[in-house]
């Protein structure tokens, strides 16, 4: 028995050595397979005749190695074009090969917010990973970014039904090395040039699809789309959407007498002159051979549209130099404004066309207005009527509730002026405020609104006590903001009415802020020292970087109506609204969405983290009595304006963070407006 022990020990050592040898051999074989796979993949990429063949071969190899059911490769060109190219494979068959995608297709994020290898099942809470899983119809798998020289070249996604835990680390390493190899090979080979050519072609085709090749103005397709978007996003309380139609008379004569080359030169000059008549929010288009049009999406008053139409008439009246001579183009110009009734892009354009025909028939050398309204000076009696209205007390204040979306609680209201005209009835501000600004009455009207709103707020705070107390938001014009006595006027009003300054929010539009940033900062700082909260209205419409917000002493951002309107489109990414929300969160600012019209907008605002909103879907502007009915009910029922009733969330653990500039809805900030 004793003699058998050394024999048994030797046998055990032999078995152990054999096992270790087997493990080592298997590891060497896996490493050899991995290196062979990487080498053969690189060779195949280098020898590929084009990107299509290279992407399909790469996905097929990756599916075999990782036993994947499906795969997706997306390549991002570095030309600044907001597009990418995607190849998808299912069951070893290519479904899409280098299909062009853009921001809308990928919901606003072409470049993935990940680095390295990601396990899809473990990261499904990330929106980008969730979209990838949804596209591939998978619950698990791997994804990795392709990066080279600090730039994301693209990404690779693999749908794997079962990931073996024992080989997960090895798979991660292999996929990471494959990603680095593919990125480097694409960037340093002829495939990179092919990708750039493909991106340039995509950009050129997109430009041809939506722009006139001769004048580079928008074509009819893009113009109609922008009219429809403007009608969808318009604020009937503030803006009028208008279209100016231009028809060149006897243009064929120019082609016949001077040749088509000269005719093209005339069209290019006409396009340039029309472009010079635009504001930065407007769009010029060439609809056909000798037809042009302008879209004016934000006209504060119908008279403003008439002024632009008159500018077009004058711009086109000047002679045009061609072939050493001059030609004069006769143009018929028509103007149409969208009314408060339901109107379509086609109808609005047809109305402008009919107005141009009326102007041509009249032969006056001016422009026509849809509805037979002659182009002329504004009502000379209007300034006098406005002054009399102030004396007679014809102005009234309506209030639009600002609502906490998850609870329906009314946190405050925005004060909106109306003119109770003895003959015309209730007149919206866009029909009289521009004239009031011209004749120097707008500040007196604002003074009235401020005092009346504060008085009403004081009565509501007494009758409907709440924590936090109700707040009121009042709009301030550029002229009032520029005057030093604004702070003194506001504080005096608050003292006389006995309203806490922190319950008042003064709203200034983004465009006003950008006109004089230094002066705005000074005024905002003085208002904040007085205890008043400051809100930036229409954020996202300034056509500039939101970086300027970091310099402003402000408390609240109000997301502009056009950005909120995009959230109502299921096919829109809503990236602009998401960007504003991110800036607001980064700066610890309260956020309010304007112009909420649909349940989908409410749902997506909640997802973005914007908890407060106002709009007709929640409650429109109303008089004092209607507002008090809402307050007496304790607010609105969320189930009525949400798709489903909100589910109470469990209390989250508090995280340490720096203090908000405006306390949350539970504090004394009265976040609403």
Structural class: alpha/beta
Strand content: 15-25%
What is the domain total for the residues?
3
Superfamily at the CATH H level of the largest domain?
EAL domain
Roughly what is the average pLDDT, rounded to an integer? 80
β-strand number: 22
CATH class of the largest domain: Alpha Beta
Distance separating the two termini = 93 Å
**What general outline do the C-alpha atoms trace?**
flat
**From the 3D coordinates, which CATH architecture of the largest domain would you assign?**
Alpha-Beta Barrel
Fold-level CATH name of the largest domain: TIM Barrel
Strand order of the largest sheet: 14-15-17-18-19-20-21-22
What are the segments in which pLDDT stays under 50 over at least 5 consecutive residues?
372-377, 644-673
Helix tally?
Answer: 22
Strand-helix topology:
Layout: H1 4-47, H2 51-66, E1 70-75, E2 83-90, E3 93-102, E4 117-119, H3 127-136, E5 141-148, E6 151-159, H4 168-187, H5 190-210, H6 220-233, E7 240-249, H7 251-258, H8 260-276, E8 283-286, E9 291-299, H9 302-317, E10 320-322, E11 325-327, E12 330-337, H10 345-362, E13 367-369, H11 382-392, E14 395-404, E15 410-421, E16 425-427, H12 433-438, H13 442-463, E17 471-475, H14 478-481, H15 485-497, E18 504-509, H16 510-515, H17 517-529, E19 533-539, E20 556-559, H18 561-567, H19 575-586, E21 590-593, H20 599-608, E22 612-613, H21 624-632, H22 638-641
Parallel strand pairs: 12-13, 15-17, 17-18, 18-19, 19-20, 20-21, 21-22
Antiparallel strand pairs: 1-2, 1-6, 2-3, 4-5, 5-6, 7-9, 7-12, 8-9, 10-11, 14-15, 14-22, 15-16
Helix pairs in contact: 1-2, 1-4, 7-8, 13-15, 18-20
